[in-house]
Amino acid sequence: MKLFYDFAYDSLNKVQEELCGDKVEVVEAEDSTIIVLADGLGSGVKANILATMTTKIAGTMLKEGASIDETIETIAKTLPVCNLRKLAYSTFVIMKISKTGKVNLIEYDNPPAFVIRNNRAYTLEKTEKEIHGKKILESVLQLEEGDMITLVSDGVVHAGVGGILNLGWQWSNVEEYLLRHSVMEKTAKGIANKLMDTCAYLYEQKPGDDTTVVTLKARKPETLDIFTGPPESQERDTELVHAFMKGRGKKVVCGGTAANIISRVLDRKIEVLMDTGTESIPPRAKIAGIDFVTEGVITLSHVVDNIIDYRTKRLLKAPGKNIEQINGADLLTRVFLEDSTHLNFYVGKAINPAHQNPDLPRDLSIKLRVIDQLKLQLEALGKIVNVHYY
Amino acid sequence: MKTINVCVGSACHLKGAYQVVNRLQRIVEEKKLEDFFVIKAAFCLGHCTNAVSVRVDEGAVFSLTENGVEDFLKEQLRN
User: Fold this and answer.
1) Chain A residues within 8 angstroms (CB to CB) of chain B
2) Which residues contact A372 (CB under 8 A, 6 or more apart)?
3) How confident is the model at residue A356 (pLDDT cuts 50, 70, 90)?
4) Burial call A10-44: b when 16+ CB within 10 Å, e when fewer
5) Are residues A270 and A293 in contact, defined by beta-carbon separation less than 8 angstroms?
6) Contact criterion met (CB < 8 Å) for B11 and A352
C-alpha cells in the first residue's frame, strides 16, 4: 500500500527574540518533497538571515535539480560573513523524500537525525564527504510503515542547560523521549508539539536558544468522507448520498438536515445521543453504518477554533474519562487531526432560511465559510482535502 | 404515554433547545410524570425560522420557549 508522508515542524524563539534563528523550508518538487532545516550562527536578525538564505538556496537549487555539491558551494559563497566572528556559518539538514518513499539525508553540523523503526532506535549508515571544506554526512533510507525521522536544531538538545538541568538533556535523552512518544502519538504534528512543549518546559518558558523540530512519519493513509448540508436542489439528495457512501473512508455526517437525508435515502433511523449535548454544542446522534453524526455549523465552527488552538498552543485537550459522552466538536477535532490523512467533504449549498436571519449569531450564516476555513487549517497540517459541492 | 421530540438542530440550539430539554426533563422528574412523557431529541424538524421546535408523537410541530415549557406540559396532560 502507498504510504502517506506526514510531516510537521515547529519552533520556539530564543527568549526576547522576535525572529527565529532557525528556519525550515518545505519545497514540493515534481517527484519529491524537500525539507531543509537550518540554524544560523547567533540569534535574532543575523541568525535569521543566515538560516533563511541557507534554506532558500538549498530548497530552490535542489528543486531545480542542482547537485548537492553545487548547492553547498553556492551556500558557502553567498552567506554574508559575521563582523563579530568573521564567520559565515549556518548548520543545515536537507531531507529529500521521493514519492517512492526513498529518503536522502544530508547533514552538516546539526545534531544527528533521530530515526525510529518498529518502535526501536535505528542507526543510519552515514558516508562522510568533504565539500568546500565542510564535512557533510550523507545517508539513505527506504521508508517503511511506522518509520519516523526527527530533525532538530541544537536548541532541543540543549534545553534546560544551566537551568533545570546542568547539562541539558542529551541527545540520547531526546531519543528516549521520542521513542516513548512515537508509540503514543499517531501524527507528526503530535510528536512535534509534544517535543516543543517539553523543551519550553525544560527552558522554564525562556528558551536559551532557538529551538526547532521537524518530524516525518510514514503512515498508512486514512480517508474520511464528510457530508454536510443539503444540496441546492432536492433532486440531488440521492445522488449525493450515493456518492458519499461510495467513498472508501470512514463516514461523518454533520448537520440535522444532512442526517435526515441520509436517514430517508438509506431508510435508517436516527437516534440522538442526548447526553453528548452541552450548552454550547448540540448533541451527537447515531445512524447505523455512519461512524460519526453531529450537528452542522455550530459544531464545525468549534472544530475550526479547536484546530487553531491546537496549532498555536500545541497540546490537545484530553478526551476526558468517558469517550461515550465526548461532545461533537471535541470528537470531530480528534478524528480530523489524528485519524485522517485524506478528507473528502460533500457539501450541499442549499440555504436554510433560518440561517439568513440577521439576529442570529454569525455562526449560522457562514456555513460555506466555515468549510473554507476548515480546509485551510487542515491543509496547513499537511492533510489532503477535497471539497465537492452539490 | 406521549413522546416529546425536541429539535436540537443548529437553529433551535441557538434559540435555546438545550434549556428547553433541561426544563422538560426537570419538570417531568419533579412532578413524577415519567409515566406520561418521554423526552427525546430530534434532528431538524424543518421549522427553523420559528422558536425551538417540539413535536408530540408524530403530530404537529409546536414552537416552544424555555418559559413556555410548564404551560405546554399542562396542556398536553389535559388532552
Assistant:
1) 255-257, 259-260, 270, 272, 274, 277-279, 282-283, 285, 295-298, 352-355, 357, 360-361, 363-364
2) none
3) low
4) bbbbbeebebbbbbbbbbeeeebbbbbbbbbbbbb
5) yes
6) yes
DSSP assignment, residue A112? P
The pLDDT tens digits for A190-204 are 999 999 999 999 998
Q: Does B79 touch chain A (CB under 8 A)?
A: no
Comparing A240 with A361, the larger pLDDT belongs to A240
Nearest by CB to residue B44, choosing from A256, A274, A279, is A256
Q: Which three cell numbers stand for residue B14?
A: 441557538
Beta carbons within 10 angstroms of residue B19's beta carbon:
15
b/e sequence A243-268, b meaning 16+ C-beta within 10 Å:
bbbebebbbbbbbbbbbbbbbebeee
Question: What was the pLDDT predicted at A213?
Answer: 95
Contact A279, A266 (CB under 8 A): no
Cβ atoms of residues A222 and A340 within 8 Å: yes
Average confidence score pLDDT of chain A: 89
Chain A interface disruption, residue of B4, B5, B13, B26, most A CBs within 10 A: B13
Binding-face residues of B in 22-61 toward A, CB within 8 A = 40-44, 48-49
Rounded to whole angstroms, how far apart are CA atoms A134 and A344?
A: 47
Rounded to an integer, what distance in angstroms lies between the CA atom of residue A5 and that of residue A24? 17
3-state secondary structure of B41: strand
**What residue spans of chain A are helical by DSSP H?**
44-63, 68-78, 154-157, 171-184, 188-202, 237-246, 256-266, 297-313, 328-338, 362-365, 367-380
Contact in structure between A33 and A26 (CB atoms under 8 Å)? yes
Cβ–Cβ < 8 Å for A159, A203: yes
Rounded to two decimals, the ipTM of the complex is 0.73
Q: Please, are residues A49 and A248 in contact by the beta-carbon 8 Å criterion?
A: no
Which strand ranges, in their side-by-side order, compose the sheet holding A292-294? A271-273, A284-286, A292-294, A250-254, A223-228, A342-347, A384-389
CB contact under 8 A, B9 and A282: yes
Q: With beta carbons under 8 A apart, name residues in chain A contacting B3.
A: none
Any A CB within 8 A of B8 CB: yes
Residue A318, pLDDT score: 57
Taking contacts as CB-CB distances below 8 angstroms, the residues of chain A near B43 are 256-257, 259-260, 270, 272, 285, 295
Q: Say which residue the cell 529551538 belongs to.
A: A211
